[in-house]
Amino acid sequence: VKTSSGRTGVVPANFLVEFDPDATPDVFFRVIADFKGANGKLSLTKGDELQLVKRVSPDWFQVKTSTGQTGLAPSNYLEEFVPDPVRFIAIADYKGAGGKLPLAVGETMKLIKRVTGDWYEVLKEATSEKGLVPSNYLEELEAVPDPGESLWGAVADYSAAAAGQLSFAKGDALTLLKKRNSDWWEVADATGNKGLAPSNYLEQLDNNPPPPPLPTEAALGAAPPFPQLAGSTSGSKTNMIPARAPDPPAPRLSLVSRGGGGSNLSLMAAAPQPV
């Protein structure tokens, strides 16, 4: 082989991985308007997400759709975006021979680059180690919708076998955060520690416990006394009408003299009594 600096020599083949030096780093675009393609050009729908294959010219990019179809697309119909990182979980231990990254089952990592179909460059989430790993030892952690927080109980003790996993004891209550895949779920324990747990160690608990019993009279204490209304007497059940103000005095009849010797009776209100 020959290095980039021009040195030549013999190296063990198992220390090498073939790659395409012209490969384009993972770049993604989102379609911002519909485009009707023809003559080898792709038809685009607003909102589609595409992966860059090659920048043919400043105006035309070769791209790949989510279904694997490739073709040309006008660059002014595209806007670049950074998708959520692709994440994997190790499904088996790997010793990492030949300078490659060792794996422990349950470890999680982010994809840096698909070097070939068989080898991926990854970044371990727990230790930040970078390196090449065999793709057949990995399972993609699908971005499934969160099921919502729910309680699960541990049916057996479990000791974390790798970074990123959570240890727990039989009977512990765990909060489900996300089903990473069918076998490994992200959970949190009662103290807030988070990690991956094997799903076959968990059983769902009742998330809707019955309402608490109503408080008893003894717990509440004696009822407060009923308010006594004015004019009532203790033990009386009949005089429950509030006291009313006394009636105003009746108007007083006064003899009023009229001119010509006559007189008349007239109603005059009594003068108010001094306070």
Compose a concise summary of this entry.
This protein has 275 residues and is mainly beta.
3D structure, described in words:
- The chain has 275 residues and is mainly beta.
- It is 1% helix and 32% strand.
- The protein has 1 helix and 17 strands.
- It has one helix at residues 217-220, and strands spanning 28-31, 49-55, 60-64, 70-74, 78-81, 87-90, 108-114, 119-124, 130-134, 138-140, 150-154, 173-179, 184-188, 194-198, 202-204, 252-257, 263-268.
- The strands form 4 sheets. The chain has a 5-stranded antiparallel beta sheet, with no helix packed on it. It has a 5-stranded antiparallel beta sheet with strand order 9-8-7-6-10, with no helix packed on it. A 5-stranded antiparallel beta sheet has the order 14-13-12-11-15, with no helix packed on it.
- A hairpin with a 4-residue loop joins strand 2 (49-55) and strand 3 (60-64).
- The chain is flat, with a radius of gyration of 43 Å.
- The model is unreliable at 235-241 and 265-272 (pLDDT under 50).
Observed structural traits:
single chain; mainly beta; 5-stranded antiparallel beta sheet; 1 helix; 17 strands
Secondary structure layout plus pairing:
Blueprint: E1 28-31, E2 49-55, E3 60-64, E4 70-74, E5 78-81, E6 87-90, E7 108-114, E8 119-124, E9 130-134, E10 138-140, E11 150-154, E12 173-179, E13 184-188, E14 194-198, E15 202-204, H1 217-220, E16 252-257, E17 263-268
Antiparallel strand pairs: 1-2, 1-5, 2-3, 3-4, 6-7, 6-10, 7-8, 8-9, 11-12, 11-15, 12-13, 13-14, 16-17
